[in-house]
Structures are given as structure tokens and as C-alpha cells.
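User: I'm curious whether this sequence folds into something compact or stays loose and floppy. Could you predict its structure so I can see for myself?
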Amino acid sequence: MTAPCGGAFTAPACGVGAADATARGAGAHRLEMLRARRITLLLIAMTLMGLSDLLCTLAYMRMSGMVEMNPLARWVANEGGASGLVAFKLSTIGVSAGILFALRRRPIAERCAWIGAAAMLALTAHWVHFNAHVPGMTTLMHELAAASPPEWVRLRD
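Assistant: Here's the prediction. I'll summarize afterward.
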């Protein structure tokens, strides 16, 4: 039961309170929509950076090989070859983006999207640095390929 206007428990339908509630609701909805847009843009950026990581990984693993620091990705590449690695990376990109997209109206999703985008940006910066220095690392790459440490992966298919 609601009290009449001016009572201890003022109903939202009474005068100014209703207008304030509507304004707050519209403002909250706008903020929620802006959050959803930011998350969507972050997910697009993360997906593009993830695809560039996949392309670089495949290129180096197919040429002379490379050190794969992610033990799960290393296992998938060794056991499933290129197709297994592609499926693994695309599924991790898709599942993580799908979860965050489904939760895009929640504040926690935005925090997670920013963290994910920062991590992918760091990985992309690593690839840019690595690609810029590969010509000077030819001897080292050949030595690593010959030594074949456990982290070394070379795709044969």
C-alpha cells in the first residue's frame, strides 16, 4: 500500500518524484547503452587483434617454428596441427567475446573488456616488436629450431 503524496512513503506517481524517477531512468538507460557501445567496440578491437595474433602465429609456426609460451596452445598445435590451433584460437576469441557481449550492459563486463583489450594490445605490441627484430634473430631462430626446446612448435601441415 502506498501513502498519499507528501506521506512518509511517497509513491513515484506523485508529481516531481515521478519526473525525477523518469529522468533518472532515462539517464541510466543512456549510460547503459553507451556502456554497451563501448564494450562492442572493445570486442571488435579484441577480435581483430586476436585474428592478427593467429595469423602471425601460423606464419611463424609454419616457417621455421617458434616458441609458444601458452602451454595449452602449444599442446593443441602439437596434437592438432594448424587446423586444431585455428579452431582453438577462434573458439577462445568467440567464446570470450560472446560472453562479454551477452553481459555488455553490466559494469563488470566493461571492466573485463578493458582488461582483455589491454592484454590483446600488449600481445599485438609484442608481435610488432618481434616482427621488427626477426631479421636480426635469424641465427638464434635456427639454433632454437635445431635444439628444439619443449616450448618450440613447428607446424608440418
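Summary: The chain has one domain: 37-153. The beta strands are 66-67, 152-153.
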